[in-house]
Amino acid sequence: MSPSTSPRFFTEREVALHCSKDSCWVRLGTRVYDVTSFLRMHPGGEALILRRSGKDVRGEIEGPPHRHSENARRWMEQYYIGELDMDSGTEEAQVGSDQRHVT
Question: Which residue intervals of the chain are DSSP H helices?
């Protein structure tokens, strides 16, 4: 995502739906990443990511047992697709962000 582009917003429910080899998303705090294309390259194996797909991986990134390097954190940024909608409990947040601001 280019720095000049406004981030897309996703509900926790939307993120949780992407939990397969065909579409694998994870959260790091409020940041959402589509790591589908990275699965086969992950040094620890794709199963490690798939078990955590659709969820916040902050605990796994920050360790223990394995704290990821700063390089790994920078590498992950290429998979950034948007932010978690912190108002996801509202009806408005259940509608995709592209539709939310349509008048």
Answer: 12-16, 46-50, 58-62, 70-76, 91-94, 97-100
